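Ticket #4471: structure output looks truncated?

Reporter: J.K.
Steps to reproduce: submitted the chain below (142 residues) through the standard prediction queue, then opened the result file.
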Amino acid sequence: MAAPAHGTAPKITADTASAPDSAQPASLNGVTIRFQQAMQLMRRHDPQAKEDGFHLLLPHAADHIDELIAEFAQERHDHGLRCWLLELIGEARSSQALPVLTEQLHSGDESLRSWAAKGLEQLDTKQARQELWKARANGLID
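Returned output as attached by the reporter:
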């Protein structure tokens, strides 16, 4: 198949419709392999591997918002991982993140409150701004 002229969309045919798309990550039971690999790295004891896992997901946070929220809800023991997951949830800038970010804005954990506030600031919707305003008015955040 010849490359399309500059500025035109490629023609989709039966041959190209089923071809793997490099923009779409491979999926296993609805969870992408990239996400699974990143989570495995983030759970290692090696600090560099943890960083590598985080940075593997960072540019794709929006693509994995459902998985990130599910992992955050399930993780109870690793405080650093919870903070990173909440940071990634905020980086997704998705309206799906609003309930999680709002809940953590009222957390007793100052680190989680801070990441929730940052995530709501990045979300920058009317409801996110209202939640931030209420939290500031109640002295939960600066």
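Triage note (M.O.): checked the attachment and the full token line is present. Residues 30-137 form one domain.
Status: closed, working as intended.
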